[in-house]
Structure to design on (447 residues):
């Protein structure tokens, strides 16, 4: 179901907010707990469409999962809940009766491909129209090099993927692009392989997989940009995974919209609570400080092996343009759309380069932001690998499109708070992929 949201310029934003649970961690908790020996408890699981795709996938593979609150509705109900996962070990999954539908979730399909490549049965993975257009060769090629029988549409480039799992051999692989999804896929395949798999990436991507698997007792280690994982096959030194007891912190990528809104709307003062501040995720904080904004961390602590803090932001006077290069992109890959909104209000030209990976996310995010911001009056130049935005610009309300991308929709909603007139966002229901209730929370802060 599609939905159009209408928003207007607002006064100051005031108050406290706790964003939804972390999407990346919710995915991984379900997956890894399913591969553990015994029952895991996952508190504060994100009950949004993407993690629910992962939950449904593992149920179809024979894993018993119970939820509290029960049910799987991502909107109009509880955003978080507690999940009990009755893991069956690395070799306990069962062949699914039907095709496994991963919905819109790239994390689900890519990580699951690594698991199924080592599982001795036949599987087919598919997804919605958006996911069917996202590149899969980046996981298919290295999995084939490990000995997997896997093929996909259009010369192995797209979904559906057909996988006949079985014996895998460890390998050393140098990733051409920094990607937490590809890295995690190969780590998971490495758990099933004969020998030790070594993966090196060009830049450090998010490390949730390494942290969580290490805490579960996997034979995994990291040094710099290289990860080593010992496989279980034929005495490869791998170990059975131990069950989890984890509380998922709030999602930094969801918090980012409120941090940016507090910077942009005059007179605002917002505290965003309980947010995961894993350093592989928080590049936006560095950029905000470079732009001249005030960001303060309070109550820093560790929750289930992940660093967490409350983040205080207030409206910034005189934001400055910044240059963001390739080395920074992995740590703010999800924050590109909201960074574009911030750039429209910064004095000078903000340039973001080395971000060609954003053209193959849920949408072509570079193109989508260029199109929609031009409608709102922004001055910009689009490049194959990024964008340059000239500020400070007075944005105007108008009809804009979400491009069926949750992060585009939420970024445009923040832009609407400072734009003159009325902004309508078409197909805004896509926010349920990661942040059910986003528009209500935004309204509550501006009340």
């Amino acid at each position: 179901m599609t939905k159009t949201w209408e928003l207007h310029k607002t006064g100051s934003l005031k108050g406290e907010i706790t964003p939804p649970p972390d999407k990346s961690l919710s995915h991984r908790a379900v997956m890894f707990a399913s591969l553990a020996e015994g029952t895991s408890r996952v508190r504060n699981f994100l009950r949004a469409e993407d993690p629910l795709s992962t939950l449904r996938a593992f149920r179809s593979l024979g894993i018993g999962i119970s939820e509290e609150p029960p049910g799987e509705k991502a909107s109009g109900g509880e955003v978080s809940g507690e999940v009990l996962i009755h893991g069956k070990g690395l070799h306990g999954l069962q062949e699914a009766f039907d095709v496994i539908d991963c919905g819109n979730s790239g994390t689900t399909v890519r990580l699951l491909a690594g698991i199924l490549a080592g599982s001795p049965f036949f599987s087919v993975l598919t997804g919605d129209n958006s996911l069917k257009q996202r590149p899969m060769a980046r996981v298919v090629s290295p999995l084939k090099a490990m000995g997997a029988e896997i093929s996909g549409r259009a010369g192995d480039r797209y979904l559906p993927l057909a996988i006949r799992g079985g014996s895998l051999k460890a390998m050393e692989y140098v990733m051409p692009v920094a990607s937490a999804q590809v890295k995690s896929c190969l780590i998971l395949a490495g758990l099933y392989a004969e020998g030790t798999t070594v993966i090196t990436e060009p830049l450090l991507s998010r490390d949730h997989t390494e942290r969580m698997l290490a805490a579960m007792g996997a034979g995994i280690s990291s040094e710099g940009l290289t990860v080593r994982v010992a496989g279980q096959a034929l005495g490869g030194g791998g170990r059975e995974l131990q069950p989890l007891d984890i509380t998922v912190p709030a999602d930094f990528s969801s918090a980012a919209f409120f941090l940016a809104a507090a910077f942009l709307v005059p007179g605002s003062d917002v505290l965003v609570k309980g947010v995961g501040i894993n350093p592989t995720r928080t590049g936006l904080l560095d950029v905000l400080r470079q732009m001249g904004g005030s960001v303060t961390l309070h109550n820093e602590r560790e929750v289930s092996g992940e660093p967490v803090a409350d983040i205080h932001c207030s409206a910034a006077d005189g934001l400055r343009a910044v240059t963001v290069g390739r080395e920074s992109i992995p740590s703010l890959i999800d924050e590109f759309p909201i960074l574009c909104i911030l750039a429209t209000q910064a004095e000078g030209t903000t340039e973001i380069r080395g971000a060609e990976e954003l053209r193959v996310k849920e949408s072509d995010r570079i193109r989508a932001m260029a199109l929609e911001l031009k409608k709102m009056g922004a001055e910009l130049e689009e490049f194959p690998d990024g964008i340059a935005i000239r500020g400070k610009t007075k944005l105007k309300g108008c009809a804009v499109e979400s491009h069926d991308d949750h992060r585009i929709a939420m970024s445009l909603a923040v832009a609407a708070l400072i734009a003159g007139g009325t902004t309508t966002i078409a197909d805004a229901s896509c926010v349920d992929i990661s942040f059910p209730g986003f528009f209500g929370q935004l309204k509550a802060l501006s009340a």
User: Anything to note?
Assistant: The CA atoms of residues 321 and 388 lie 10 Å apart. The first strand starts at residue 5 and ends at 8.
